[in-house]
């Protein structure tokens, strides 16, 4: 056998060994060293001195890229250190979701017991939790859908707006007493398991009384709008977090309102659209409180 044949055979053998080594590697993305393991979602809860029913949630930061929090209103992206306010007495389960490298997550929950409601921040919305028939009776219909094609249903602490599309819409409202120049915040939990197109869900706090069959447009505060980029896909959370509709008074996304007179205003929620989600948009825990 001559030298050239021996060299060729050696080269082929080395190539085969190299290929075998490459194909023998574990190429499972789960074992690529980029996904974190043993994610620590631990956090502490500290009452904030000088503030009523206000708490500082502090997540441990080792190996954590970002945090999600849920204080009973749905999960939302937050900071490693998050200040929350719980105006009403009750027991709240706070859940922290820690997000680490590769999207790995872990959850830890702790309860906060609020012994006494904050007398300075009562919820001015009556029946906003839709817990029973008395709650539901606090709301009136704007009668925008004369055929009943679009309608609100009430069940187990929630209210849901349904529409077959084709621009059918309906609203609910109630009167609330406010004080001149005092700032208020409005919020609520909203959710939908599927998206929409050409759809809106808007919240108003206007001084003019709603009229049957007339689309309410006085002082839009916040909402969802597929034209503005939200509600196109499934969502859940506080409207102040998942909404994208600008506040008429501030020309920015904000849930803060104030009024130039003391007296009665009307909290109106109006929703509908052309290609409305088949599941409806569900709302609960509607709140309006002084800042």
Automatic annotation (TrEMBL):
Keywords: Signal
Keyword Magnesium: no
InterPro entries: Ig-like_fold, PKD_dom_sf
Signal peptide residue numbers: 1-24
Protein name, as recorded: PKD domain-containing protein
Organism field: Flavobacterium defluvii
């Amino acid at each position: 056998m001559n030298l050239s044949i021996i060299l060729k055979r050696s080269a082929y053998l080395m190539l085969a060994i190299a290929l075998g080594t490459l194909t023998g590697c574990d190429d499972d993305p789960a074992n690529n060293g980029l996904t974190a393991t043993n994610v620590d979602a631990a956090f502490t809860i500290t009452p904030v001195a000088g503030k009523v029913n206000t708490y500082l949630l502090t997540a441990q930061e080792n190996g954590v890229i970002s945090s999600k929090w849920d204080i009973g209103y749905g999960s939302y992206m937050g900071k490693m250190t998050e200040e929350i306010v719980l105006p009403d007495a009750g027991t709240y389960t706070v859940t922290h979701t820690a997000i680490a490298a590769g999207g790995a997550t872990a959850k830890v929950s702790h309860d906060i017991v609020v012994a006494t409601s904050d007398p300075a921040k009562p919820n001015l919305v009556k029946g906003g939790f839709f817990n029973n028939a008395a709650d539901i009776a606090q709301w009136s219909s704007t009668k925008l859908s004369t055929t009943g094609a679009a309608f609100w249903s009430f069940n187990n602490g929630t209210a849901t707006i349904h529409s077959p599309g084709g621009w059918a819409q309906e609203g609910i409202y109630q009167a609330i007493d406010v004080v001149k120049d005092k700032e208020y915040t409005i919020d609520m939990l909203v959710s939908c398991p599927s998206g929409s197109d050409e759809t809106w869900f808007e919240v108003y706090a206007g001084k003019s009384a709603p009229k049957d069959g007339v689309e309410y447009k006085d002082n839009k505060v916040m909402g969802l709008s597929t034209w503005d980029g939200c509600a196109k896909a499934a969502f859940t959370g506080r409207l102040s977090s998942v909404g994208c509709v600008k506040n008429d008074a501030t020309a920015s996304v904000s849930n803060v309102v104030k009024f130039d007179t003391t007296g009665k205003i009307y909290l109106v929620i109006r929703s509908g659209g052309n290609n409305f989600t088949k599941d409806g948009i569900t709302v609960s825990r509607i709140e309006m409180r002084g800042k």
